[in-house]
Design goal:
The protein has three helices and ten strands; from the N terminus they run αββββββββββαα. The chain is of the alpha+beta class. It has two domains: 37 residues; 129 residues, no CATH class. The strands form three sheets. The chain has a six-stranded antiparallel beta sheet, covered by helices on one side. Strands 1-2 form a two-stranded antiparallel ribbon. Strands 4-5 form a two-stranded antiparallel sheet. The N and C termini lie far apart (78 Å). Keywords: Signal. This is SH3 domain-containing protein.
Length: 174
């Protein structure tokens, strides 16, 4: 069986597919060189207050934003709480802008903190000392705001919990 000669349009389509495959491979390799291919953005929250989960938070679970919202997006200082499928509670304490983490601290059970500036759900590298100081200060402010909200709602134990968390975060600045 003989093959018909390729037309210019067929050659162009093949070249375009080859170029697309090459670009995808290059992007994947670049992502792997930076510590793995970036995960797709994970949107969550109710329609009136959507947010994107930072990459360092696990998949699954039930995320909840406790903070202000504007224009249908989480906006400002607050706490993003995610209870993972295994029951562990992961927190982002800090500032969101347009539903995206921008400056704060992620607290991961038994793994410690991820602090700094965030862009498109990923921590911006390298993380300098002053950025860490700003991130922990912002996280402590978010914890204090959360504590005050719980106090005003009469939830004393939760208010104590977040006041303590603010003190722990403040202590990281020393």
């Amino acid at each position: 069986m003989s093959r018909a000669a390729a037309t210019p349009q067929t050659r162009d389509r093949r070249a375009a597919r080859g170029l697309a495959a090459l670009l995808i491979a290059a992007a994947t390799a670049a992502g792997a060189a930076e510590g793995g291919a970036p995960r797709p953005a994970r949107e969550a929250g109710p329609p009136h207050c959507r947010f994107t989960l930072p990459e360092e938070l696990p998949d699954g679970g039930r995320p909840r934003w406790s903070g202000p919202c504007a224009g249908g997006r989480a906006e400002g200082l607050g706490v993003l709480r995610l209870q993972a499928a295994d029951g562990a509670v992961h927190l982002y304490l800090g500032r969101l802008a347009g539903g995206q983490a921008v400056l704060g601290v992620i607290e991961r059970p038994n793994e410690g903190w991820v602090a700094g500036r965030f862009d498109q759900g990923r921590r911006v590298e390298p993380v300098e000392r002053n950025t860490l100081i700003e991130a922990f200060a912002e996280a402590a402010a978010a914890a204090r705001a959360e504590a005050e909200g719980h106090r005003l709602a009469g939830r004393k134990a939760s208010a104590r919990h977040y006041r303590h968390k603010a003190r722990v975060l403040d202590a990281q600045l020393d």
